[in-house]
Design goal:
By secondary structure, the chain is α/β, with parallel strands linked by helices. The chain is 45% helix and 16% strand. The protein has a 4-stranded parallel sheet, sandwiched between helices. A 4-stranded parallel sheet has the order 6-5-7-8. A 4-stranded parallel sheet has the order 10-9-11-12, with helices on both faces. Helix 6 links the parallel strand 5 and strand 6.
Length: 303
């Protein structure tokens, strides 16, 4: 099918299934164009928790679709590309976390939403890059075991120095690969540009930036800033909304390596197949779901 025909079929199937299509900011442009809601993990978590539809087609990666199922157990949650995973989420397992918790019995376990349902089930509270600082600041205990992103954890530790943050050895392979010489090179090309980066980048990259924040926070900052030129240090998919919302401004990618292969797996064809064949459905063990839901509920209460 041609693109226009594919979109028409998707819209008809969406109506037939009483479905909603949600997409993360890192998805390809075609997917974002057909989505009902586009956002970061926090915005999509809140939306899926309250949406009045029978089917959620989640255009993202596996842990995101799991989070939607955790919060909406009575809805059918479909992940168009079942092998769209997250290497960082795979860097922590339930079993390894249980062992680490034994070493820090007084610590509150804060898990980045970029983690599996099983890992969330062993945590006290969840967070996203949008609210991690507020969540950690609100936790009563001084000791925080932060999993799995060491870079986001380092950023939070800098912003909340009164807490003792114990870092897990995990990271986003896409953001972690950004190097400081890339900042120098792009800054030389665009000397008047503001540098906006995601805190999943390494600490030296975050320190060199003019602003660090989640995808939504980067989008909001760019919209409000009087500046016209921006160097963007997060996954390239965010450029779609930045350019769409700010046609009079210029956006340059900090590094050509800022591409997440897993986020790019979803296409119009896979959305069509998901709705047409009702695949791939996300299902969770109910005990795991209920335990994981507590960590997400605790986050949403504070958000």
């Amino acid at each position: 099918m041609k693109k226009d025909e594919m979109i028409k079929e998707i819209l008809e199937l969406k109506k037939k299934r009483n479905a909603v299509i949600v997409a993360h900011n890192y998805q390809v442009d075609d997917v974002q164009e057909v989505a009902d809601v586009i956002g970061d993990s926090l915005a999509l978590s809140k939306y899926c928790a309250g949406v009045d539809k029978d089917v959620i087609v989640f255009c993202g990666v596996h842990f995101m679709a799991e989070s939607a199922k955790i919060l909406s157990p009575d809805k059918t949650v479909l992940l168009p590309e079942i092998d769209a995973g997250c290497p960082m989420a795979d860097m922590v397992t339930k079993e390894a976390l249980i062992e680490e918790k034994k070493k820090h019995p007084n610590a509150t376990v804060v898990c980045y939403i970029n983690s599996s349902a099983e890992v969330k089930s062993e945590c006290d509270i969840c967070c996203t890059s949008s609210n991690a600082i507020d969540i950690v600041r609100a936790v009563k205990s001084k000791d925080i075991l932060f999993v799995p992103d060491q870079n986001l954890g380092s950023y939070v530790s800098k912003m909340v120095p009164e807490k003792n943050i114990i870092l897990w050895n995990g990271y986003c392979v896409t953001h972690h690969r950004v190097k400081s010489d890339e900042i120098d090179r792009v800054k030389e090309l665009h000397p008047n540009a503001e540098i906006l980066v995601h805190p999943e980048c390494q600490p030296n990259i975050v320190d060199a930036a003019d602003f660090a924040g989640s995808t939504k926070q980067i989008i909001d900052y760019a919209a409000k800033s009087p500046n016209k030129d921006f160097i963007i240090g997060t996954e390239m998919g965010v450029l779609f909304k930045l350019k769409k919302d700010n046609p009079d401004k210029n956006f340059y990618l900090l590094s050509q390596g800022l591409v997440c292969p897993n986020m790019k797996k979803t296409s119009l064809s896979s959305i069509y197949n998901a709705l047409n064949e009702m695949k791939y459905e996300i299902n969770l063990d109910e005990n795991i779901r209920l335990k994981a839901k507590k960590s997400l509920d605790n986050m949403l209460e504070l958000s």
